[in-house]
Amino acid sequence: AAKQAGRNRFHQFDAAQERARREQREQGLRLREALAQAQFVLFLQPKVVMQTGQVVGAEVLARWQHPERGLLPPAAFLPLLDGTPLEIDFGEWVVEAALAQLERLLDAGLAIPVSINISAQQLQHPGFAAWMVQCLARHPRLAPRLVELEITESAALYDLPAVAATLAELRALDVAISLDDFGTGYSSLTYLRRLPMDTLKIDQSFVRGMMADPGDRAIVQGVIGLAQSFGYQVVAEGVETKAQGQLLLQLGCAHAQGNCIAHPMPIDAFIEWANRWQPPAEWQRQNSEDYL
Ligand code: C2E
Ligand code: MG
Ligand code: MG
Ligand code: MG
């Protein structure tokens, strides 16, 4: 009887695995369809100089306009793409679509860089830098310095020398590199030392925690200090309150992104927003003597 029960369990396990595999296949098909039917859209979130209100960049963030479920955030579909061949197709679509949006920004008189999130797999895909060269060549109006690629620390984990070479190749074109979610991955300091880059983005978890938690505040201060020592720009992400912005200014971080400034939005709304946004008076009043 025990033997029989064991066999049944085994069969159940088998059936569950088979179901999971089938679901994965179906999700893959749905995502491929979504890409083919242009159901993905890019939202833009501004990057600003807090004190002056100058809009200095826009991060492109993907959304899935799902026919039944509505607008879905990356958390609802990126994990399904992760590690599949479709991840590369999706990533290439994002870059192409981001460059098209950059052209629209230029047409609207906004010559600001767009920041594009690049997945680990995409960054390490053979020929990524060469593909970027071709992509930029198809858009002769776009200066490469208007393109910034955001990578995460985990992205570089597998083969640091190869990633460093790819980044160096891109920077030689004048494409900027930003290290996203800084401090949340592994070996942050090694990455800083070995990867060519231009900007560090302070992860939003530290920004959220820094008002109440001295440890988070110390990390924010540390990242700002590191960026200054290495000669990198620093951007705080996830700024949700005026008080957070003020503290960041006091700590020496001038650039920020976050819902307190603007949520990610479709490009038309972005252009309209950029033409009328004013920073909070508290940020404008912040004088440079207050900087550490
Ligand atoms: P990320 O690159 O770190 O982007 C910042 C995320 O924080 C975005 O979430 C943005 O909407 C959100 N955010 C901005 N300001 C605030 C704020 O004040 N408070 C809070 N709570 N959140 C804020 P989103 O759009 O859901 O994207 C999540 C992540 O998905 C991104 O994190 C990025 O890693 C990834 N992602 C988004 N679009 C793409 C893409 O086109 N390609 C790739 N490979 N990854 C993408
Ligand atoms: Mg990002
Ligand atoms: Mg981030
Ligand atoms: Mg993130």
Automatic annotation (TrEMBL):
Domain EAL: 24-278
Protein name per the record: PAS domain S-box-containing protein/diguanylate cyclase (GGDEF) domain-containing protein
Protein's organism: Acidovorax soli
Organism phylogeny: Bacteria, Pseudomonadati, Pseudomonadota, Betaproteobacteria, Burkholderiales
